């Protein structure tokens, strides 16, 4: 029973993280531009 609860908790965390990542990615983007990657982020 504990294994089932653990797997359920991990699943909820992963799904939540993917939703948050998707929202952030669609709103502002995750990666820097190529120029910023080359120059280094400050």
Textual characterization of the structure:
It is a single chain. This protein has 42 residues and is mainly α. The protein contains 2 helices and no strands. The protein has helices at 2-27, 34-39. The radius of gyration is 17 Å and the shape is elongated. The protein starts with a helix and ends with a helix. The relative contact order is 0.09. The mean pLDDT is 87.
**Nearest-integer average pLDDT:** 87
Helix content: over 70%
Provide the structure class: mainly alpha
Number of helices: 2
Secondary structure elements and their pairing?
Elements: H1 2-27, H2 34-39
Write a compact overview of the structure shown.
With 42 residues, the chain is an all-alpha fold. The protein has helices at residues 2-27, 34-39.
Task: Looking at this protein, list some descriptive labels.
single chain; 42 residues; mainly alpha; 2 helices; elongated
């Amino acid at each position: 029973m504990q294994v089932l609860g653990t797997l359920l908790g991990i699943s909820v965390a992963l799904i939540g993280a993917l939703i948050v990542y998707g929202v952030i990615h669609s709103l502002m983007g995750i990666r820097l531009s190529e120029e910023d990657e080359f120059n280094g982020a400050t």
